[in-house]
Amino acid sequence: MRGFEGASWGFVWPSVSFADRGFRFRRKTAVCAKASGYEEYEDERGKGFLVGREDEGRMSWRVLGSSFSEDARRRRNAEPAPGTEEGGVLWEIRDSLDAGDTTGAWIVYRQNVGDFSLNLFNCLLNLFGNLDSLDSADRVFRDLCDNYQPDHVTYNTLLTLQSKQGEYETLWWTYEKMIENGIVPTLHTYTILITAASRQANMELAEKLFLRMTLQKEQPLSPNIVTFNALLSGYAKLGDEEAAEKVADRMLRARVGPDHITLTSLMLMYLEKRNFPAARKAFLQLRRGNWVFSKGTYAAQIKYCALTNNHWQLGKISEEILVNRVELDGPAAVQLAATMIRLGRFDDLAEMVEYCNKSSNDKPVYGKHMLEAVLRRTLDVGGGYKDAVDAMDALPFFEYLWTTKYFNAVLKDANRKGELDLVRLSAQVMRVIDVKPSVATFTILLETTEPGNISYEAERMIKYMHRYKVRPDLVFFRTWLKLEQGQGNINAAERTLELMERFNLQPEAPDYSALMCECVRQKNFRRLFQLLGEMDRRGLQPDLVFVNELLNAFAAIGAVREAENFLQQVQRTSLKPDRVTYNTMIKLHARRGNLDSAERLLKNMRSPDRISYNTLVAASAFHNDFHRVHRLLRNMEARGNTKPDVATYTSIIGALTRAGEASKAKLYLKRMRNSGIQPNKETHRYIEVLKEGN
Question: Which alpha helices (H) appear in 381-473, and where do they start and end?
């Protein structure tokens, strides 16, 4: 196994073979294992290959390929033999649970519970916990405690079940009971606990457990690869590269070689952090190893290849998946199939799609991804819509996917990414293969229209809709309005509102809001109030969101008088200004230097908040009205919910510093610190200026 230098971590993967240190790696099949020199082994446990190392006189046993026997599994789990009385009871209960007959399983259990040994109780605890529920496992555990003292196997089984179910509070309680009963935790116990702590993102607890394991008084334990992986995966999921790499360093110092789970965790972490050089080195080491990959590891490799456009490696991975019959989950299967289309490997794709549809638990929905892959392949080879149609004809097993739904999904995604070539190709293919567009299709295409041709293209699309018997909806017209208003075309936007009525679509208050904000930005106040009157005639009442949006537009251009006129007109209705309305008006008056008017508004508010006071304090300090500042600070401190914060003091200190009043600025700085308020970055900038002045 070749080594490589870690990308940004501080260790070097060993260049020597791990077999030299007593390790053997699993091969993908038994044939491959035999060809690689693994020792074939057969005893009462069944037939297999030795792939572990000798440790304290025991050989680690792992069976490869299909030679794993029921007898070997039974012995691995310490189950009683089927020929014995206990074995017969166990198999009868298992058969009932496999058949879904939980009641029958419990009848057999109750009839024989008085004769169970501790070993059989432990087997049943695991069986009921995995096939039924934790409640059933708790019942078995209580019966066990009535007859025997639970041992470490009992507690480990229970902890494993609770960890799988995510019952972490119960898990920690079980661990405490284990310690209280004098049961010494084993390496397996600590591995379960560290895994649970990592899943909860409580890495401080995970490290404490790891340290406690190695310093255990009764019997210090050496962590194995599973324990290290549990700790490393926790840091990897949090994106803590430095901590994860330190765990990898500790692994090598402990002479524990990384496995495919280690490398997968590191690779996924680097991909999330966009550290592609490090991810590449982890990926290459993963591919050089001779491990039997799980579907999760394959999914991680597919993700890496997709993000880095490594189509050659993805082709090799697809071959392995087909040969080894790996049951991929939906997202990985979709990603793999889409990439095979991009590579033009249509023959292999038919088998991949058929297999993934049969094997995947969540039945991947290929639609959008498969269609997008066909279109992107056409663009990759510089083809046109005819080439795309030919490629679609070569994929008859995807014919049911060429629908309006999936074309709209591709159009929407391409529009969001600004890929106009893909948008145009999709629209052309839809027309050629006679896929009926929906109003959503036309809406997406309208969003891609060039700014100068919005009205022309929108009216042209309405004619096409009539041809396809599609009726434009409010979303289409609102998209049209938004585009016209974005270009400042007030007259065109008004014509759009009139056109809506021809289709029996009544404009609503939000449709007028953006148009009126554009009138404010262009200072066309006459047209603004005409539109307001038109809304009134239509019976459309503006809400507070509408009012506050317009007031912000007035504040942006400093139009105080027009804002007050607008607010007075709104107040003639039943609408009452809220806190946001008052704060906007205070900000508008304060920016124009009308501090008295702003303060009157503040007093008229029922419950002014800190934002209201801070706005006026900042404006008063800016205009050097420090008497007003002092008065406002007293009022803020007198109220319970508006006490000065760092923004309040920073605006005052900044104004005094700019005015050359260094001594007063220092007094307010001292006052702020005495109030227990910590300076922010802006405050520190002023503090540096004050120090330089000294």
Answer: 385-393, 404-417, 420-432, 439-447, 454-467
d(CA 62, CA 675): 67
Where residue 255 falls (left for φ over 0; alpha for ψ -120 to 50; beta otherwise) is: left
d(CA 228, CA 240) in angstroms, rounded, equals: 15
Q: Among candidates 652, 571, 558, 575, which has minimal Cα distance to 614?
A: 652
Q: How far apart are CA 214 and CA 222, in angstroms?
A: 6
* CA separation for the pair 285, 14 (Å, rounded): 11
Tens of pLDDT, residue by residue over 93-142, are: 777 777 777 787 778 777 777 777 888 777 877 777 666 567 777 888 88
Task: Quote the CA–CA distance of 132 and 164 in Å, as a whole number.
Answer: 13
Q: Structure tokens of 287?
A: 């591919």
What distance in Å separates the CA atoms of residue 436 and residue 254, rounded to the nearest whole number?
65
> Which pLDDT value is given to residue 181?
85
Positions of E strands within 182-250: none
Cβ atoms within 10 A of the Cβ of 461, count? 22
Provide the residue type at 449 as one letter: T
Give Cβ neighbours of residue 217 (< 8 Å, ≥ 6 apart).
Answer: none
| Weakest mean pLDDT among 248-262, 319-333, 647-661 | 319-333
Give CA–CA dist 200/209, Å, rounded.
Answer: 14
Phi, psi of 18 (to 5 degrees): -70, -20
Residue 274 in tokens: 């966009």
CA distance 78 to 75: 5
Range in 159-168, 349-358, 504-513, 577-586 the model is least confident about: 349-358
Q: How far is CA 186 from CA 118, 129, 145, 204, 216, in A?
A: 18, 21, 20, 20, 10
How is residue 155 written in tokens? 């507690």
Indicate the helix (H) or strand (E) that contains 43: strand 40-43
What does the buried/exposed string (b/e) look like for 573-592 if buried means 16 or more CB atoms within 10 Å of the residue's CB? eebebebbbbbbbbbbbbbb
Q: Share the mean pLDDT of the chain.
A: 76
Helix%, strand%, coil% for the chain, nearest 5 = 70, 0, 30
370 in Cβ contact with 407 (< 8 Å): no
Beta carbons of 628 and 620 less than 8 angstroms apart: yes
For residue 569, what are its two tokens? 């007109």
H or E element in which residue 621 lies: helix 610-622
Q: What is the secondary structure of 671-687 as a DSSP string?
A: HHHHTTPPP-HHHHHHH
Question: Is the separation of the CB atoms in 565 and 572 below 8 Å?
Answer: no
Query: Do 232 and 244 form a contact (C-beta atoms < 8 A)?
Result: yes
Structure confidence at residue 63 as a pLDDT band (50, 70, 90):
very low
Judge contact between 509 and 543, C-beta under 8 A. yes
> Using a CB cutoff of 8 Å and minimum separation of 24, what contacts does 208-212 make?
none
Alpha-carbon torsion angle 195, 196, 198, 204, nearest 10: -110
CA angle 197, 202, 207 (to 5 degrees): 75
Between CA 125 and CA 147 the distance in angstroms is 14
pLDDT at 600 over 60: yes
- Which residue would you say has higher pLDDT here, 349 or 234? 234
Distance separating alpha carbons of residues 240 and 318, to the nearest angstrom: 31
**pLDDT tens, position by position, 620-642:** 888 888 888 888 888 888 877 77
Do the beta carbons of residue 119 and residue 149 sit within 8 Å?
Answer: no
